[in-house]
């Protein structure tokens, strides 16, 4: 340490201060004052200095957010005060009863509350010593939590250094934004892995990963709402505490409200009952807290929950129905997913007949049996899931299911990939169910788009042995198809064959999507096709070459490499080539209209769905990104724009409406021939 030049030490310290400050501007205030490039430059300078002088590395250095570590286990640590949970209320009467209890106990006519959104995430405790982040714990059993410090360092809105060098412990919620949740579930769909039922499960599963790179890549976020021993910092009320926490460097929810009485709390709750779906993260209610800390202390806590706070839940759409049967589906990668076959029931706009049971651990944990009456809900408003069993309705006739010892489709062996894996998989590489699901992926709309190749035909093609791999569909003859039996007439056959023929013209990225390479979905397929331009180049690329491509990480690169290293893949590609598929990109001129331009989109558009406009931009060689950065050329704004609009304004990105966007395309399409296209 002694022979490190003073100016290096000073510079390192300076860089850390600056980077942490810009991190705060970007992740906490969403109001950056420097460009991404400038930020990267500061970070690179610090990384280089720490490489040259490793003795200078400290646990609170911003470089610790980006390096990866694999831990052996999480140690458990005693909480400095128990982490309690909250009692729930569900309607106006119950929340008024809470208010009455509070007023009676305090002998007051009226009590002031802070109403906060109840974030659907996982709670954590964060300890700082002299302003430096030293320990992060899960709730655990409430008395002891698991040390997840390293993972929490990968959550950028958690400050590694506070803006004052104080000792403090705070608590708050770690959550996964809806957009990230959807991205992650799409990726898992590509991987053939079981989906997370909701962002809270996804957060819990992420924050407890021993490999910090997993947490780093799944962009978690935080809101802090609680400070231990507030009197130490001269804080008198929760409202002041929230503002103070924000100034200290924490991300604090901007939508909390100071309410003069319980009527205002109820007003806040009903307002957010309607507005909650506009948020970029999930909330499941309002947390109502007595504002004065003095009064909180007087009220105290029960063993489980404070008497000064309560959760006021939003009504969730749940219905009860009966499980008629539990079947098992085998996915493209062999994952066995149990599915509840339900007595059809109306829920949030659709009739639900089936609901995912996730995996066999879930069934065991919730003790779900055939014949049970269960409550179901749509996770994220989309995927129906079984929440819990109504045990009062049990008759004794319900049947437990057995965990399959072999694949229900091919009777092959089943097992888990490793002990952390919750998914049970069929280990037989020739399992027809896998081929069937692969064919579905291949024929899907975002891939080769062969409409006639639906589930039923695929079933017959595979079962009859006519199709043994994806390429076989290109070698089918009319005669073979007539052998498939009833219900498949000449017209159907002619249609199918013509669609298959047409699909040979699908652009490269669609073929790549269709192959179902683990971890390679539509977006990655596009990136690969744009950058490599032929299957052959992708097949021959090394992991290093692949990771050079922006948007391709090491894990995806390894997965691509592994896929193409398989002899069966090589054979398949040869067969596809021979069949006449377009395995390289040939750009027609009109497709280049938006080349070199990057777009971001916010709000609801009139003429296009998100997917449609993204496809249009891509087809014209433009790029679309999920967030606004300095590299964005245009932000397209629709109705009810989100925070991207503020960001674009603050960094001076061009903002255009949908019709201006269409004008832009026309303007860019220079030749009359091109203009006709629009
Ligand atoms: S206060 C003793 N405030 O809800 C203080 N909790 O169902 C208790 N939660 O365990 C926590 N948003 O994980 C509080 N604004 C908020 C919250 C919040 C979400 C969670 C927290 C708690 C759970 C209780």
Give an account of the 3D structure.
- The protein has 678 residues and is of the alpha+beta class.
- The protein has five domains: 6-65, Helix hairpin bin (Helix Hairpins, Orthogonal Bundle), CATH 1.10.287; 88-313, DNA ligase/mRNA capping enzyme (D-amino Acid Aminotransferase, Chain A, domain 1, 2-Layer Sandwich); 319-400, Nucleic acid-binding proteins (OB fold (Dihydrolipoamide Acetyltransferase, E2P), Beta Barrel); 429-587, 5' to 3' exonuclease, C-terminal subdomain (DNA polymerase, domain 1), CATH 1.10.150.20; 598-675, BRCT domain (Rossmann fold), CATH 3.40.50.10190.
- Helix content is 38%, strand content 19%.
- It is built from 25 helices and 22 strands.
- The strands form five sheets. Strands 12, 13, 14, 15, 16, 17 and 18 form a seven-stranded antiparallel β-sheet that branches. A five-stranded mixed β-sheet has the order 2-11-10-3-9.
- The longest helix is centred in the first third of the chain and has 23 residues, at 6-28.
- The radius of gyration is 28 Å and the shape is globular.
- Residues 671-678 have low confidence and may be disordered.
- The protein binds 2-(butylsulfanyl)adenosine.
- 2-(butylsulfanyl)adenosine binds at residues 84-86, 116, 118-119, 123, 173, 225-226, 287, 306, 309, 311.
**Annotated CATH topology of the largest domain:** D-amino Acid Aminotransferase, Chain A, domain 1
Tell me the CATH architecture of the largest domain: 2-Layer Sandwich
Report the CATH superfamily of the largest domain: DNA ligase/mRNA capping enzyme
CATH structural class of the largest domain: Alpha Beta
Number of domains: 5
């Amino acid at each position: 340490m002694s022979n490190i030049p003073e100016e290096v030490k000073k510079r390192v310290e300076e860089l850390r201060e600056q980077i942490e400050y810009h991190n705060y501007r970007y992740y906490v205030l969403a109001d950056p004052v420097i460009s991404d490039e400038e930020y990267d430059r500061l970070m690179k300078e610090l990384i280089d200095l720490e490489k040259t002088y490793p003795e200078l590395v400290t646990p609170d250095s911003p470089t610790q957010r980006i390096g990866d570590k694999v831990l052996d286990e999480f140690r458990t640590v005693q909480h400095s005060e128990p982490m309690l949970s909250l009692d729930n209320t569900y309607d106006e009467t119950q929340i008024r009863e809470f208010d009455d209890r509070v007023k009676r106990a305090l002998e007051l006519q009226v009590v002031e509350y802070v109403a906060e959104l109840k974030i659907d995430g996982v709670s954590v405790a964060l300890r700082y010593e002299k302003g430096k982040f030293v320990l992060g714990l899960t709730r655990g059993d409430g008395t002891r939590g698991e040390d997840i410090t390293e993972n929490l360092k990968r959550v950028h809105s958690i400050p590694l250094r506070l803006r004052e060098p104080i000792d403090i412990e705070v608590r708050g919620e770690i959550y996964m934004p809806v957009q990230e949740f959807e991205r992650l579930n799409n990726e898992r769909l590509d991987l053939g892995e079981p989906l997370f039922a909701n962002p809270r499960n996804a957060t819990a599963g992420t924050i407890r990963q021993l490999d910090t790179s997993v947490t780093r890549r799944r962009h978690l976020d935080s809101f802090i709402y609680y400070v231990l021993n507030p009197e130490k910092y001269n804080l008198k009320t929760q409202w002041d505490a929230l503002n103070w926490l924000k100034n200290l460097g924490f991300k604090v929810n901007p939508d909390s409200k100071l309410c003069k009485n319980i009527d205002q709390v109820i007003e806040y709750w009903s307002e957010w009952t309607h507005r909650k779906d506009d948020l970029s993260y999930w909330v499941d209610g309002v947390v109502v807290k007595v504002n004065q800390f003095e009064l909180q202390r007087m009220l105290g806590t029960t063993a489980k929950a404070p008497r000064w706070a309560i959760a006021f839940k939003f009504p969730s759409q749940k219905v009860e129905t009966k499980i008629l049967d539990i079947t098992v589906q085998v996915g493209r990668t062999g994952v066995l997913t149990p599915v509840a076959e339900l007595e059809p029931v109306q829920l949030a706009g659709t009739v639900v007949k089936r609901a995912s049971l996730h995996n066999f651990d879930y069934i065991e944990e919730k003790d779900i049996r055939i014949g049970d009456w269960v409550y179901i809900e749509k996770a994220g408003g989309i995927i129906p899931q079984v929440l819990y069993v109504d045990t009062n309705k049990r008759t004794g006739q319900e049947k437990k299911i057995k965990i399959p010892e072999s694949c229900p489709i091919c009777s092959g062996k089943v097992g888990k990939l490793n002990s952390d894996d919750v998914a049970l998989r069929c280990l037989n590489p020739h399992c027809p169910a896998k081929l069937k699901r692969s064919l579905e992926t291949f024929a899907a709309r975002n891939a080769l788009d062969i409409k006639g190749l639906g589930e039923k035909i695929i079933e017959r093609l595979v079962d009859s042995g006519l199709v043994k791999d994806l390429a076989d569909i290109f070698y089918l003859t009319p005669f073979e198809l007539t052998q498939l039996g009833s219900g498949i007439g000449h017209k159907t056959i002619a249609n199918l064959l013509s669609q298959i023929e047409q699909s040979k013209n699908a652009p490269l990225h669609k073929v790549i999507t269709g192959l179902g390479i683990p971890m390679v979905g539509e977006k990655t397929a596009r990136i690969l096709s744009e950058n490599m331009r032929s299957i052959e180049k992708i097949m021959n690329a090394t992991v290093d070459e692949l990771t050079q491509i922006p948007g391709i990480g090491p894990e995806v690169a390894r997965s691509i490499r592994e896929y193409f290293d398989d002899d069966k893949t090589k054979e398949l590609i040869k067969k596809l080539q021979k069949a006449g598929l377009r395995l390289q990109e040939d750009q027609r001129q009109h497709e280049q209209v938006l080349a070199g331009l990057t777009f971001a989109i916010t709000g609801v558009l009139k003429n296009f769905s998100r997917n449609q406009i993204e496809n249009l931009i891509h087809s014209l060689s433009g790029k679309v990104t999920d967030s606004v950065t300095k590299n964005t050329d245009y932000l397209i704004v629709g109705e009810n724009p989100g925070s991207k609009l503020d960001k674009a304004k603050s960094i001076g990105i061009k903002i255009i409406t949908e019709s201006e966007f269409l004008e832009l395309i026309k303007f860019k399409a220079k030749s009359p021939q091109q203009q006709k296209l629009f």
